[in-house]
Amino acid sequence: MGIIAEAPLIPVDIIVDSREASKQKEIIEALRKAGIRVAISALSVGDYYLMACEDKKPILVERKSVIDFANSIRDNRVWEQVKLLKQAEEEEELKPVILLEGNLNTIIRFTKWNITVILRIIDEITLNWKIPIIPSPNKEATTKWLIAKAKALGETNKKKPPRLRVKKKPMTINERILYVAEGLVGPTLARKLLEHFKTLKNVANASTLELMKVEGIGEKRAREIYMIFNTPWRSK
Q1: CA 126 from chain center: how many Å?
Q2: Would you identify the CATH topology of the domain 14-158?
Q3: CA 200 – CA 205 distance, rounded (Å)
Q4: So where are the chain's domains?
Q5: What Rg do the C-alpha atoms of the chain give, in angstroms?
Q6: How far is CA 58 from the centre of its chain?
Q7: pLDDT in tens, the chain (236 residues)
Q8: Global model pTM greater than 0.70
Q9: What whole-number distance in Å separates Cα of residue 233 and Cα of residue 116?
Q10: Are 165 and 171 in contact (CB under 8 A)?
């Protein structure tokens, strides 16, 4: 199975993931009112697949509200999603985009998180993973952007079909180790941590001073890592 479970038989502008379509019916309706041809299918990656003419690349959009984004950081899903978007870019010859909908102040208001944590993740995704994050103030703006972008990618009857090759692969043990480490410090520092300590057990047993010996790990980050492994978990 590739990105799309079943390719549309007629020319379309945007393929919308079936789960996204069931939750965002007003977006689908607005797209169709604007003359955008929409097909609904199960996507293994992303929420909106914007078709393109031969001389342009399709765009794969992962739409996230700021609260969804915060939750994906909290449970470490964000790095798996980023990896899948990057895999799609490499194998499907498309452009992945994360559309971040809402005001970041919402995260601070409802989660009490330090905004630096969120900005650090955005920094990793945009600068190290090279995946653009486009801000959208609300759902109406998201819809208008999708309409404008779909039209900019060319005429419907000249758009090329998707190649349908990307699929979610089970992670190897080595990838799972890296995945856990990335949840602590992001992809760049995760590799440095593992290169230095070799195992996650060694990372968990390290003192803050030992953690600070890794390039890029300052005192504040070292304390955060130490606290994660040494603070008792409490149910809500």
Answers
A1: 11
A2: Rossmann fold (3.40.50)
A3: 9
A4: 14-158, 173-230
A5: 20
A6: 17
A7: 356 555 554 678 999 998 899 889 999 999 999 999 999 988 888 999 999 988 889 999 999 999 889 888 877 788 889 999 998 898 888 999 999 999 988 877 777 777 888 888 999 999 999 999 999 999 999 999 999 999 999 876 666 666 545 455 566 888 788 878 887 887 778 888 999 999 999 999 999 999 999 998 999 889 989 988 888 877 65
A8: no
A9: 23
A10: no
Q: Long-range CB contacts (< 8 A, 24+ apart) of 81-87?
A: 82/125, 82/129, 82/131, 84/44, 84/45, 84/166, 84/168, 85/45, 85/46, 85/60, 85/131, 86/129, 86/131, 87/45, 87/166
- What DSSP character marks residue 74? H
Residue 218's contacts (CB-CB under 8 Å, 6 or more residues apart) are 212
CATH topology of domain 173-230: DNA polymerase; domain 1 (1.10.150)
Residue 102 is which amino acid? G
Dig out the tokens for 81 from the structure: 């999603």
